Amino acid sequence: HAVHIPHDEL
Amino acid sequence: MNIFRFLGDISHLSAIIILLLKIWKSRSCAGISGKSQLLFAIVFTTRYLDLFTNFISFYNTSMKVVYVASSYATVWMIYSKFKATYDGNHDTFRVEFLIVPTAILSFLVNHDFTPLEILWTFSIYLESVAILPQLFMVSKTGEAETITSHYLFALGIYRTLYLFNWIWRYQFEEFFDLIAIVAGLVQTVLYCDFFYLYITKVLKGKKLSLPA
What residue stretch is flagged as signal peptide (chain B)? Predict the structure, then answer.
């Protein structure tokens, strides 16, 4: 599974 | 960052500050659902566990700190400092009906089966229904103080603006997060009848009263 991008939203 | 997300964050921050000031200045949490505030504290705690491990920007980190600190301060004022004014008889929504299903769903539908990601997903699902005890309490008491309706309006508008932010990001950044979008839609839909009452009543200077 693609490395999930870190959540950049509050 | 885009204008919709920025305005959404400002709206969210102002809702939090409106509530803090209302309780602190009036030294009363009448009409406020402690259960919803507890749920919001859980939402921020489970969502911002990466506060120290994942630096996005100064803005991102400082807003997270403010959200977590203010949500705990609000819970403390309701259940400790001004607990004598807490209207527990009308704050009777069964929060376990919100916590358990969202916790189970976060295990079943998520982006990554890792602790941080499952907690983030749980926080997204929980936030979408966290206002229900408050809306339930307003419908039970049949009315809400005007300041409380301003709080609810700002809180509802924040996620509505985030919906536009996700349209923007899909269009210009080819980014979209289906979990956040679906939960955000549910969250916004739950406010619809309140938005209607707020726009037709409160903005005309009347008190917000629900047909009991």
Answer: none
